[in-house]
Task: inverse folding
């Protein structure tokens, strides 16, 4: 697994608080046994209702850094939402806050979700709207997001930052390492050992 | 001086990962047809097995049709996804309950059957690829909704990589007034603390109101923790919890049950436990509550008017105006069901209201029991006859119109009085459909009246 130390590319400004995962990926697109093709259905209903939706705007085609407001990805735990974003080319998200499940689901796909204050996000959104061609860089180690002359301070949860830096953002292999320790913990849990009389 | 959350977290901690996260053992893993197939594919790609197949249980709920559940399903994708789950469970030795399979009478919404079968127990860590996994906290478990890659992790290792949560104690004290239910309590909590207020927290619910609640009611509260941003919610185990679990199929039995109770008791938060935050609410101040907007925090008491500061996007989408009441809003559909309010006690309370009355002619009304066991128990009490006589459709078990992955959907701008948990844009299957969340009793009252009404007025009229 490769380290994710920084993400560089153009920004995709998506305004709005509490954009839930039903909005990002409506449930009818979960009627499938794979994640293939989900990128085509990102914000499908929002895009249909609003021709000026950022995901309809060809100026943002190829953008890799999604810029959002508060509580992005709230609601359903469906990984289909970050899977769709990842498959559309999004490599990092910078926003005011996220639901925890969404943030974790994104991390395991190698997508860091940076948080910054409202004023910084507003500046970044405005820049991406005014000058979509602007190259941005989001650095995992320092949390600095720079774009043109703009530089904002953003944060990642420390454990996730280290995981991205060390290439351990997908924990599956680590969880299987030293498996005797897992069995030892399981063996000490009374509900697994059948509530023996010595507990 | 520890909370239940910390005691359970510590008991299940394997080690600190080099990434800094905690490797946490998962005591119970529940899976369903929609968020698991890709996880099994990932396992096969890696050549991994399932570490503890005996700690994973599967059912079908999200896409499963609730009109006719004989196999093969008429909905070909529902059939395909069920076949995929059957194949995966067979390959890896996992117990599955699905129509047409063994013990199919245990099929139902994953968060309804877990507690019902006694799989959910105090002190467990529980994971499921569904955000409403927080429901299981009602029995004193710490339960997390997870994504599909994490489903893979749990299958492969029976573990998750997580960061610990802070704990917010929410006290609700006093008696609820007639016509006010657990649903109104949790909608009020979310309204007060906000849909983002719980991010980073587990919610511990307590106080005399919670102490007096049944497990069903506590499940309604814990279920919607996630709507307030809290990934987990729980109630400390007490005599109500123990009485609920005694005799259930997967609960300990005989002398082991008594030893289990002793362990469960000591897991409850200590009286001097330290909390990261505390909030309290007066139960008597809560009235029947309905949402008017597009997230579960946008609600009002039935006698209230929508605030002047209400969000414009939500008002426009829902067709409400500032200063307006939700009471009197005409509805097109009434939905009673879901992991929030699809249990026997929910159906009993709704049936009490509709007995001897009839659904308004313009309303399509359906009752979707949360599990086949709920359906069977309801039928044994004659509730199906009450509902069908009143003009409701009586269905098989599943998630149905809560998220509209099966054929039950809103059409166009229909307005739905719903006992479910989310009023997001498009949630009930029509991109322009409009959802009003409320208690099952309020849904029943709205179905009869054809518009949103104060259920207390209908309760005052002598039941026939």
Result:
């Amino acid at each position: 697994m490769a380290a994710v130390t920084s993400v560089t590319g153009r920004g995709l400004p998506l305004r709005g608080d509490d954009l839930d995962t039903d909005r990002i990926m409506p449930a009818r697109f979960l009627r499938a046994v794979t994640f293939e093709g989900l990128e085509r259905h990102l914000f499908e209903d929002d895009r249909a209702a609003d021709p000026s939706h950022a995901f309809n705007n060809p100026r943002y085609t190829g953008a890799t850094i999604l810029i959002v407001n508060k509580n992005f990805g709230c609601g359903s735990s469906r990984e289909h939402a970050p899977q769709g974003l990842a498959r559309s080319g999004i490599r990092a998200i910078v926003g005011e806050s996220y639901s925890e499940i969404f943030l974790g689901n994104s991390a395991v796909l190698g997508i860091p979700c940076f948080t910054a204050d409202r004023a910084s996000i507003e500046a970044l959104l405005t820049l991406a709207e005014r000058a979509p061609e602007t190259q941005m860089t989001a650095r995992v180690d320092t949390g600095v997001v720079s774009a043109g002359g703009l530089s904002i301070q953003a944060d990642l949860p420390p454990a996730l930052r280290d995981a991205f830096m060390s290439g351990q953002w997908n924990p599956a292999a680590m969880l299987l390492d030293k498996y005797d320790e897992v069995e030892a913990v399981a063996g000490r849990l009374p509900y697994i050992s059948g509530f023996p009389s010595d507990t | 001086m520890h909370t239940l959350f910390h005691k359970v977290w510590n008991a299940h901690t394997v080690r600190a990962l080099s990434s800094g996260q905690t490797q946490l053992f998962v005591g119970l893993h529940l899976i369903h047809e929609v968020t698991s197939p890709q996880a099994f594919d990932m396992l096969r790609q890696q050549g991994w097995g399932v570490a503890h197949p005996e700690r994973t249980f599967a059912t079908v709920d999200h896409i499963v049709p609730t009109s006719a559940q004989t196999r093969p399903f008429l909905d070909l994708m529902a059939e395909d996804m069920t076949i995929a789950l059957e194949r995966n469970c067979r390959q890896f030795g996992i117990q599955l309950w699905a129509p047409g399979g063994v013990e199919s009478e245990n099929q139902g919404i994953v968060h309804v059957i877990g507690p019902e079968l006694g799989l959910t127990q105090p002190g467990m860590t529980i994971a499921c690829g569904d955000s409403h996994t927080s429901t299981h906290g009602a029995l004193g478990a710490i339960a997390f909704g997870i994504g599909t890659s994490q489903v893979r992790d749990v299958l492969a290792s029976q573990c998750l990589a997580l960061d610990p949560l802070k704990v917010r104690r929410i006290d609700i004290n006093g008696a609820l007034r007639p016509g006010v239910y657990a649903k109104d309590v949790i909608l009020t909590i979310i309204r007060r603390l906000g849909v983002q207020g719980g991010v980073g927290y587990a919610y511990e619910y307590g106080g005399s109101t919670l102490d007096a609640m049944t497990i069903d009611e506590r499940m309604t509260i814990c279920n919607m923790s996630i709507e307030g941003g809290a990934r987990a919610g729980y109630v400390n185990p007490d005599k109500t919890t123990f009485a609920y679990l005694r005799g259930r199929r997967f609960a300990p039995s005989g002398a082991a049950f008594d030893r289990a109770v002793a362990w469960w008791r000591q897991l409850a938060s200590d009286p001097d436990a330290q909390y990261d935050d505390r909030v309290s609410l007066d139960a008597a101040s809560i009235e029947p509550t309905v949402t008017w907007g597009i997230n579960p925090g946008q609600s009002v008491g039935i006698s209230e008017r929508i605030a002047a500061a209400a969000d414009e996007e939500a008002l426009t989408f829902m067709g409400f105006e500032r200063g307006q009441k939700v009471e009197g809003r005409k509805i097109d559909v009434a939905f009673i069901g879901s992991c929030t309010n699809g249990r026997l006690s929910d159906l009993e309370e709704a049936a009490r209201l509709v007995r001897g009355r009839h659904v308004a002619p313009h309303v399509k009304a359906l009752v979707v029991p949360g599990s086949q066991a709920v359906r069977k128990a309801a039928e044994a009490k004659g509730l199906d006859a009450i509902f069908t006589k009143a003009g409701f459709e009586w269905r098989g078990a599943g998630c149905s119109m809560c998220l509209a992955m099966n054929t039950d959907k809103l059409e166009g701008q229909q307005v739905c009085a719903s006992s479910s948990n989310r009023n997001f844009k498009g949630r009930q299957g029509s991109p322009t459909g409009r959802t009003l969340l409320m208690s099952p009793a309020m849904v029943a009252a709205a179905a009869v009246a054809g518009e949103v009404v104060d259920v207390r007025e209908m309760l005052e009229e002598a039941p026939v």
